[in-house]
Amino acid sequence: MEKTYNAFSLFLCYSKITIKSWFQYKVDACMRSLAVFFREATGVIVIYLTMLTFDEINGWNTNELLLLFSFVYVTYGILIVFFTGLRDFEFLVNTGQFDRFLLRPRGALFQVIASNSDWFAAIGHGALGICLFIFSANNVQIVWNFWNIIYCISSIIGGVFIQAAIFLVVASLSFFFIKTGSIRELLYWNTRKFANYPISIFPKFVKIFMTYIIPFAFVNYFPATYLLDKDSGEFLGKTFCYITPVIGIVMFGAAYLFWNYSLKRYKSTGN
Amino acid sequence: MKNIKEKIIEVKNLKKNFKISKRMNGLPGHIANLFKPKYEVKEAVKGIDFEIYEGECVGFIGANGAGKSTTIKMLSGILYPDSGCINVMGFEPHKDRKKYVANIGVVFGQKSQLSWDLPVIDSFELLKNIYKIPSDVYKKNLDEFMELLDMSNFINQPVRQLSLGQRMRADIAASLLHSPKLVFFDEPTIGLDVVAKEKIREFVRYMNKEKKVTFIFTTHDMQDIAKTCERIIIIDKGSKMYDGSVKELVDKYGGSVKLAIEIKDVLVDEEYIKLLKQSLENQFIDCEFTIEDKKNNIVEIMFENKTLSSVQVTTFLAEKFTLKDFRISDIDIEEIVRKIYEGGITL
């Protein structure tokens, strides 16, 4: 109990520092929210405009596609409130700042996570995600009941952990390779581009890749098919629609073990 | 004296190797390296032993790349040693990291631990939470450091606006807020001016003498060592070269005199230096002279003054050569260490 309290209090303390740091440059911070919002929104608008000429892709209409998008943005918005430290971890290793975390009597991973947070980008991503979600959920007429709401929340949390696990694995690889920008590009950003479309339109190997290797399909595709009451394709019927939180926690746990293993290989830089 | 005090650090046969990828030159070499990486093992630390007792202030010196920082990083638990054992206050640093680091303070001169954009005091508040420092201890330490390090006029300023000297003082205070018994200082005076350096030395002396804090101090400035440390450990190419008191080192290797002479009217060149050396050696048989051309017609002559007095040498030189001026000084620790690095003295 005391441990949880201490961890929570330290998390708040670190957050206070990050927010204060952001507010040192107020204009830049607010512009960051706007810039992120519009940058991401353009991508969505392009797809929206394209969809005006086609009625649907593989049984998915425009509003359903936007729901698919909304999961990506909402989860990413939450992700960078809590896990920016993992996303930008290679920088800590590269400059040797990670040493400092090891010199403090708290968990190294906890400090990495707590000490960084991309608040203003999160507002941009989150606002876009919420707009898309409200807009599309309204148009596709999802029936909201207690279980649906619980389902949505748990899937979003699960989706955040799946992406956090990918970042944690890439972060751990920084101990071996120092620079990991391209690996992150490959494992995360490229996969995420596929996730902008229902995976049922892709050839089999992409489906397998998105489901079993980098399971991004659990972040948006499976939760969306459940909410829209669609057939998820040739995968194990409806089961896959329910296990996003499980996948998230299992992946994060496995990634944590890999982190612990890699930490022993840490070679500090400089001086 | 030593035996009464408690051992705080014990290091035995400590080793650390780094694998460095060895690339051939040019693009073909880089491509070949992708498929068949070749590694070169660099022995950063090759079997060091030492013990440090409570309340000591030990200077840890060595040329760049000698293995000082690697050793400090192993002692502070950042790096895993390859072999050998380290015992600090009953802990094995890399194993019980979390419990262990609560008892030590570390200052890296090159890497600040303060938040760049925020006032110093904000970083201190964060550290209070991280180390779970009780409020009364925190306040007492903070007040004390504010005075000793003269921080009151910049404590509320963002770190990015501080001078290097102010930042370093704040960094030092940050690392000592939790009252550690053992403190590692890795080049804390790097790039500072004389006044700032002196302030830091004074602080170290005070904490060491009054608060009984044990210090391990790496630096390239021998004045730091001379003014704060009683004992030094010299490391070169990963091995320990010397471990003992500063005084002994100076007595043993510093029994020489440095005589700087300025020559008048003649241009000093290699020929001239040779001639000078020849005539000195002819005059004082069995004595060794090291002669260095310091440019601007100044020549430095070093010799042991056990058998030979500087008066004799100066008189001789004044008769034979056209001297404009001369200055005699003892060889100080700086000179000795420089010679050790250059291989002039083998310990």
Please characterize this protein's 3D structure.
The complex is a heterodimer of chains A (271) and B (347). By secondary structure, chain A is an all-alpha fold. Chain A has one domain (24-263). Helix content of chain A is 75%, strand content 1%. Chain A contains 14 helices and two strands. A two-stranded antiparallel sheet of chain A has the order 1-2. The mean pLDDT of chain A is 90. The model of chain B has no long low-confidence stretch (mean pLDDT 86). In chain B, strands 5-6-7-3-8-9 form a six-stranded mixed β-sheet, sandwiched between helices. Chain B has a four-stranded antiparallel β-sheet with strand order 11-12-10-13, with helices on one face. Chain B has two domains: 7-251, Rossmann fold, CATH 3.40.50.300; 255-330, Alpha-Beta Plaits. Chain B is of the alpha/beta class. The chains are: A mainly alpha (271), B alpha/beta (347). The A-B interface holds A 6, 9-10, 13-14, 17, 20-21, 24-25, 95-97, 99-100, 102-107, 264, 266-268, 270-271 and B 18, 69, 73, 76-80, 97-99, 101-102, 104, 106, 108, 110-111, 113, 115-118, 122-123, 125-126, 129-132, 158, 186-187.
Show the helix and strand layout:
The complex is a heterodimer of chains A (271) and B (347).
Chain A: H1 2-23, H2 26-53, E1 56-57, E2 60-61, H3 62-82, H4 84-87, H5 89-95, H6 98-102, H7 108-114, H8 119-140, H9 146-177, H10 181-194, H11 204-213, H12 221-227, H13 239-242, H14 244-263
Antiparallel strand pairs in A: 1-2
Helix pairs in contact in A: 2-8, 3-8, 3-9, 9-10, 9-14
Chain B: E1 7-21, H1 26-35, E2 39-53, E3 57-61, H2 68-75, E4 83-88, H3 97-101, E5 104-108, H4 120-130, H5 135-148, H6 164-176, E6 182-186, H7 194-210, E7 214-218, H8 222-228, E8 231-236, E9 239-245, H9 246-253, E10 256-263, H10 270-283, E11 290-293, E12 298-304, H11 310-320, E13 323-330, H12 333-342
Parallel strand pairs in B: 3-7, 3-8, 5-6, 6-7
Antiparallel strand pairs in B: 1-2, 1-4, 8-9, 10-12, 10-13, 11-12
